[in-house]
Each structure stands twice: as structure tokens, then as C-alpha cells.
């Protein structure tokens, strides 16, 4: 997926973030989201290793190699930041204090089940913090390509891959659409140009409800 | 600071805002150990408002005229979950008279139960208290062939703590041994109020030395200081 | 019990403490023990509220009311001290890092069972940290009067009062004797003048073994 | 400092004293997260001595040429208990080839299992991982009518951590996010070795800012600093 598409997804995800929220970003496309937050919006970004209040990436040469996000990339801190151990970091997550987590995904089911940590026999697995984040954040946003590299839908009736957590996903943002997980099923809210609602439905393995007004994002 | 962020990012508030969250029959958890670290201004406010039928959770009942003991000895609590009430004979009398229900936990178990509530654990297993009255009524679980007691997490509708300094985001540092149970209690409240000696702008506390990350704090009020005489004085 | 007797017991207990040890003192007579440690001996005193490295009582007027031991009395700190929360304080205790705890007692059994937290219906109870301390410290020393106020032995075949912990006591130091709990039973090691081994045995409800040399302490 | 106190009160030692405690087949727990906070000088010493058949416990397998990953990718460990090995493909290959046994825990559960080992809890109960592969083989316990997983504590014969400063008693402070799992790991070792950037006399660290109380540390050695290139460099 190209940089433009990735950034469009990240920009769309950034719109879900409101001032004052506590947010945890996963690795991959989710890590781009912080670039799309208005500079004057106060958001506290949290990392599983033990930081609350991460700021932008430091200038080259200004990095403190010890001060990194959970993916190991150097960060800075904002006023009001604090450091703590990983047990406290997950205490924040497990007790439901995260407003939003934005994660990558391999499959999402009609019920909002998420699979994103293992492809048995193919990828080296890593649970990492995904289970706590998916299960406990107030809002879970999944950023992923709409179809896999074989062109098959990643939004499916039931996940085939081992689950990260059941019924946890609130919003799915792909390179083609924005879909909300509701009690009545999946709701197509927005499509990304040049795709149409029809394209999206054809490439989704689950019937989609149509929002009253399906917006098209450019 | 921009519009809309005020509430979440600047948590400085008033005594009345604090009282808005504490009602008759509330479950209230308090930081402190033997009165030290009990928040004096919040306790005074609760007494003035005459809030009653409280369920209190904390280390101990302090002394009759010190700290949380002032609430207990005036009969404003109907239940207390604590590790001891030995320093508050009024609490003992209320218990004997059937006016105060007291649930005892070993002190370290109580601290871990509060922490478990704060960090979202569903329970802890300990071998402390096996073969004592403490095991009565508790579920036993075998771990690696050894019997353990299942101790359940504790949370409260409101937690109140006393700290030396807070920044506007709610990051807290404490004062020597007045830290005691407060960082645990601060995590375990659905709504956590910190009464502090000194309030500073975000960015003024050393992030390496923050004890309670501000995410656990919902409201900060200025302390008027201790308004009782310590037992040793 | 008079101050002299209390101090003699505390002085005797202090002899069990070696340089570099981590020690927790209970309230009452045990709290006097620190007065009998040589000034140049490095011992780290721990308190359940959350201090390691307590020093002597501050001068009158120099107290920080926030800096107290677990009994609520002002203390000072020594170099190398640290503050932590009560969960960590009990983490130190529960994980077996205390070399010695010195506690008060209501009854001690032949097997070293300790009862010291409740007299049902008579005293306002307080478990406090007694269970963790008694069960987990490497060495448990009990300081108590040899008989209760009715003149009845407090060292008994089985405790009548609710237990603090089973088989936990290593040494009993009373106003009359020093008794070790061994696998073969209770061993009388020392008697306090003017009492004799005979006096002690008459006022103990359990047969005592006699140490090869029963020392008399003045 | 008087005779006899040297050992317990001044814990400053050498690389060779540290190696004396780590053997073939030892269970070794390490602080760090993605390589950050792995102790470089101790890892180099283990590599030089060629210690093998280690059981490793820690957050992750770092990268093949970074931190603990250097030990894993050279085949010196037979077992790893971690939350992920995604950043170390060599570890993945060894696992696939049956040369490395890997036990996965969710990251927060792993942190709490290590903490539980450190503070003497016999187990913790969580609902994280219910309905996933993580629940396989684990005891389930009902708490208040809800199913929980029993997760067991982790301890090790030797724990190794990296810190910014230590005093001679072993009190530790860390460097920003390099703190991560280290305070937990430091508590959970039967013998804990801290590799530190700077060693100061007891009394020079602010007792309010100590993160790991010295009682949990048995030996302090001077770090020679990181001897690898970070992935982002």
C-alpha cells in the first residue's frame, strides 16, 4: 500500500481523536496517526513500555535511544508526561483508562472479533499488548487493507485466524471504506475514492448496512 | 490551553466540585496509614456536608479525632474494609454495638486487593492467612499443588488521596511515608480526587519522579493542611 | 512491665541483629529494639507503610509529621533510604526479603504458632501487617511478658486465641527467659535474673528442653 | 563502613562476580522492551563465557543483533517465556526448527506474572485472553460468577537489569522509557544483578525518586554502555 493511501487512512483515524483523550497507537499504519493531529490539540499518547505523554519524533541526532515508543522508535515527551513500569502501563490499559486504541488487523469479523497476532506456521507470532488493548480500550479502531494480498476480503463472517479478542472492534478503517461495528451488524459509513459503495460491498465477505448518507472521502 | 480541553487536561477544581461526587451511601476509598496521608480538607468537607452511610475502604480507622477516624467516630460510615481499627477505640465500640460492619484483610493483602482493583486484575492468590480466621468464607484454589486463598479486587465509586504536589494534568508526588497506600487508592477509584499541598503547571514535575500518573486522577483540589493534632504531639 | 524490664528484653533482642540485616520492628516493646543497636552498625529498618532505612527519632520540633514508622511515630532516614507504596512494602515482606521481624505476642505454642492480633470480644482487633510479617520473615522473634495479667503462662501447648500464623516463631524473648523453637520442641537457652530455670519451667505450659549451658542474663 | 557489613550494604562488584552466578541451564530473567533496557555489558559477558541452555524470561526477543536477541539468535537459550518475538526472525526460525521452546503471554499478563513472582503472590486472575489461544492449558477460576484465567507467578534464579544510576545499597533509578519491565524483573530474581551507568554513594539518590529499593538488588556492576546499533539508526 502506498504512502498516500496509508496517510489517508491515518488521517481519517485521527478524526476520531478528541482533545484531552488518552490514546495508544499500534505499530505500522496506526503509528502514522499522530502526524495528523492538529498541533494545538492536547492529546496524551500512551505506550505499553511505560510512557504517557509522548510527543513528536525528535530531530535526527537529538534522539535519546532510551526514550522510545513501544515499537522502539525514538520519541519526545510533552508537558505532563510521566514514566512508569510496564505493569503500570498495562494497569492503565486493563482498567479501561484508554479512550482509544488504534491497531492493525489481519481479520475482523461481523461481530467485531479481531485477529491480528498470529498466522500459524507462517509469521513469527507476537501477542505483545494487542490482547489487552483490543479487549480493554473504550474504543478500538482497526486500520487495515480492505483485502489481503490474494485479493480476499479481510472482513469476514467469522475469523479463521486465532483471535486477539472477541467483539472488541468499534470502527474499521481500510483503504476503501470506513465501517462501524454495530449491534445490528456492520454499517458502511464512508467510502474512499475512487471506490464506490458497490466495490466495497463486493470485497467484503459480510453484508453491509448502508448509512443514511454514505460519504465519499477523497 | 484551548477550548474543549479544559476538562480533561486541567483538572484543577474546588471543594464543592469534589463534594458533588460524594453522596450518602457512596463507596469511598481513602489513602493513608494511621491518619498520615488522609486528606484533611476533603474529610472536613464531608463532615460539614454531613454525608452518611458511607462504605469506607482503606488501611485503617486512624484515631478518633485524626483523619478518616473523624468520619468513622461520628458514625457516618456503616461499613469499613480495613486491616485494623486498633488505634480508633470508637470504631471498636461501634463495631461491638453492631453499628459498623468491619471486614478485615491482612495489610499486605488489602494493599494488593486495592492495587488489583486499580490495574484491572480480577483477583489475586495468596498464602497469607491460611490456617487463620482470615480464610473463612474465601474460595480456595490449588496452584502447583498448594492451597491458596482467592482475594478479590477492591474498587470504589470515589477515591480520595493526599499528595504533596500535583501538576494540572494530575500527576502526583507524595511526601515521604505519607505516600503509603495513596498511589494504590488513586488507581482504584471510578472518580479520584487528589487533595494537594501545591499545584504546579504541567511540565514542572520531573517525569522520572511522578508516582501517580495523572491519568488516574480526575480532580485536584488545594489542601488547607492538616487540621488535627497528631497522637505523638 | 517496667521500663527496665522492657529495655532488658529489647536489648536482648537487639543481639540477634547482625550488620547489614533488613529488620522490621512491631509496635510496643519491639519498637525499643532500635535503641540498643550499636550506633555504627548498619542495619536497614523497614516499615510496612513504605520506608526502608529508618533512622533514629528526630529531635523534638524537628519532626516531619508525614515521615513516620508504621505505628505513626516520627522517624528520620539514613543514607540509602527509600520511600515506596504499601504494596511494595509488603512485596518486600511477602517475598521473604526481611531478615528479622520482632513482634509482640499474646500466645506462642510449642510448635511456634503465634497468636497476637485478636482477643475475641475483648480487644479491638487489628491484623495489620502481623500475618505477613510472622509468616514470611526469615526469622521471627516474639517479645512478650512470660505470663498474662492473671499470672497464666503465655507459652502453651496449643494457642487458644485465633492464630496470626502457624509454626512461624523462631525465638521467644520474655521478661524471664529466652526460648528457642526447635524441631525437637522448646529449648530454654537463657534466664533473666532473678528468675531461675525452675521458675521459668513452672510458668511455662509446655515442657522445656534445657540448653547445655543455660546462661543467666542480668 | 565496618567489617562484616561490606557484603550486604555495599553491593558494588565486578563482571566476574556477576558471571559466577550465571551458569549453563540457569533460569535468567532480563529487563528491557524491544532491546531498550537490556543490559549490554552483562549480555556481552554471557556471550564471551559461552553460557548455554538458558531459560530466558522477559518481554521479548529484541532484535538478532541487539540486546537479549544476541543471546537468543546464537542459540544459547533453549526456552523463552515472552510476549512476542516478532522483531527477531532468528528466534522465529529457531522456534520453527524446534530448537527454541517459546511460551507466549499477553504483555500485560507477563508483566503482572513477573511482578507477582517479585512480591510473593501465588497467582493472579485475569480476563485477558479468554476465548483466545492464550487460555489453552490454563486453570479457570470463577470470580463473582465470571470466568477468569489463573496466571502463575514467574521468578528466576538470576535477574539482570540495566539502570541509569545506583547507589551502593542498590537503590536504582532508570532512564526514561528504559525503565519498562526492569523494576518488575529486579524484584523477581533470587539473585538480582543491576548493570548501571553511574554508581553513587548511598544517600545521593533522592529517596522520593528511587524506583527499585536496594533490598531487591544483590550486585551492582558498572556498565560499559550499549555496544550495538539501534534498528532506527
UniProtKB/TrEMBL annotation, chains A, C:
One GO MF term attached to the UniProt entry: CoA-transferase activity
DNA damage among keywords: no
Annotated keywords: Transferase
Signal peptide, first to last residue: none
SUPFAM superfamilies: NagB/RpiA/CoA transferase-like (SSF100950)
Keyword Lipid biosynthesis: no
NCBIfam families: pcaJ_scoB_fam
Family the UniProt entry places it in: Belongs to the 3-oxoacid CoA-transferase subunit B family.
Identification of the protein by name: 6-acetamido-3-oxohexanoate:acetyl-CoA CoA transferase beta subunit
Lineage, top ranks: Bacteria, Bacillati, Bacillota, Bacilli, Bacillales
From TrEMBL, chains B, D:
Pfam family, one: CoA_trans
Molecular-function GO terms, alphabetical: CoA-transferase activity
Record SMART domains: CoA_trans
InterPro entries listed in its UniProt record: 3-oxoacid_CoA-transf_A, CoA_trans_fam_I, NagB/RpiA_transferase-like
Keywords: Transferase
PANTHER family found in the cross-reference section: ACETATE COA-TRANSFERASE SUBUNIT ALPHA (PTHR13707:SF60), KETOACID-COENZYME A TRANSFERASE (PTHR13707)
Name listed for the protein in its UniProt record: 6-acetamido-3-oxohexanoate:acetyl-CoA CoA transferase alpha subunit
